[in-house]
Amino acid sequence: MEGYREGITVLSTVHGVAYKVMWDRYTGAFVAEIQAFADAVVNNKEAPVTGEDGLYPVLMAAAATKSLHEDRPVKISEIE
Description:
Blueprint: E1 12-14, E2 17-19, H1 22-42, H2 51-70
Antiparallel strand pairs: 1-2
């Protein structure tokens, strides 16, 4: 497997590239997000991602956590 080194536990592979942790796979996306946000602040532009865009993953995680603790499906509307 290309990119594989002996002694590393591979948790996932995408297109033949091995990733040990999720952050390895998404580092480029995180860097691009921060650069776009910094550009918006420095140049007094609207940020490409809004606070509301960030709210939905938080609500999803809260619903998933509640679902785990209560052993039942939880709708996001129960969290909002």
